[in-house]
Amino acid sequence: MALERLDASWRQRYVEQATTGHDADDSSCIFCALAEAPMDAASGVVDRDASSFVVLNAFPYGSGHVLVLPRRHVAGIEELDEPESAALWRATTRALRAVTIAYRPDGANLGANLGRAGGAGIPGHLHLHVLPRWGGDTNFMTSVAETRVLPESLAVTFAKLRGAYGGLD
Hints:
By secondary structure, this protein is of the alpha+beta class. The protein has one domain: HIT family, subunit A. It is 33% helix and 15% strand. The chain contains 5 helices and 5 strands; from the N terminus they run H-H-E-E-E-H-E-E-H-H. Strands 1-2-3-5-4 form a 5-stranded antiparallel sheet. A hairpin with a 3-residue loop joins strand 1 and strand 2. It is globular, with a radius of gyration of 18 Å. About 4% of the residues have low confidence.
């Protein structure tokens, strides 16, 4: 069977406009600001080293959802040098351990949305997601009402995770 083609070259302008000019520099990057912010409940920064940091997701999918980021403003994994890459993975491992201590989940999601087309809300600064999961943790609210129910505040999440990080050292 031959593959049919639909010419939609008129969409090229739309695609170009939708994919250019986003997060080209770090001058207004919220993640770059958080990389230097105090480690407290107001910033949501729960862990930091010389090359990476961990912050609460301000719009979490569920309790305990954190983001792991390089401190340097880069959009892609391939832009990290070897020490930064190793530090990012160490920070991700620590984040998963802290989330496991704090929440005792049945499993976890680890992931990255790379680029705007890949789903990144802030595509200019690489960030990895660590999200605890439990059997049956989704419900009708997400499916029907496009709403997530969070059983705790971000301040409570911060306190739980900072306590868990204290047990890692």
